[in-house]
Amino acid sequence: MAEASDEKECIVCTNHFTTPKILPCGHLLCRQCVISWMDSNPDAGCPLCRCPIVEPGHHAHRKPVNVADALPTDLVMEAVVQSAGVLAQDPNCRACEEGKADFICLQCLDMMCISCARIHKRMSMTRGHDVESLSTVTAESLAARGPGMCADHGEKHSFFCHDHGLALCASCRDLQHKPCRAVSKLDEEMTSAKKSLEDLIVQLQKRGADPGTGHSSSGRSSGRRGHQRAGRHGADRPSM
Fold first, then answer.
1. pTM
2. Is 180 a residue whose pLDDT tops 50?
3. 175 and 153 in contact (C-beta within 8 Å)?
4. Domain that holds residue 197
5. Distances from the Cα of 226 to the Cαs of 88, 201, 215, 218, 221, in angstroms?
6. Shared domain check, 140 and 91
7. Domain containing 113 — which CATH number?
8. What percent of the chain has pLDDT over 90?
9. Is 218 exposed, middle or buried (0-12, 13-18, 19+ CB in 10 A)?
10. Do 106 and 120 sit in the same domain of this protein?
11. Total of domains in the chain
12. Is 36 exposed, middle or buried (CB count within 10 Å of its CB: 0-12, 13-18, 19+)?
């Protein structure tokens, strides 16, 4: 079997990966392709290198669906494929729905025209977002800098569970974390964390300490003045 022409493409179905599973040899297959590949031949190894997917002698005790679910999911490849899907959409502004999109927000994954991009950067909730030109963004760079995606539901992490210390998508919140006592919006938690850090820096500055070194700024100033005085006295002395 020939190798896929696109690194984001599954060798079995020849489509972009859907829930890419990492085989013991390191190659990737879609979860459903692992199941169908093993259903057709339980003893079949990796379609690329023929390395066994299941240890010899264990095939009779392992159903293909259980084998597929036990394999780790390549979350990086999954994010790259999702990002490629975002970039493949029609380049129309998602905000005004009128202009041609030339920019994309790496956090919201929304494409927008230049006018809406400027407004996006001025709004209090989104002014800290990274808005970049579509001409320079690749699927890999978008996946690396975009929002965290839920491996179970393929949705953006939008909430934070304080009980478990986890970022959640909307489905995780409604299905698995509904009984949790403290679940808040992720944007609010990030804003709160940023404010706490800014307050800490202000407190350190009020104490006269440099946040980077912990040394007193007044001590450095007096030290510099001392060196300056010594330098002036030394300059006034005649050379021997």
1. 0.53
2. yes
3. no
4. 159-204
5. 64, 28, 17, 12, 9
6. yes
7. 1.10.220.150
8. 18
9. exposed
10. yes
11. 3
12. middle
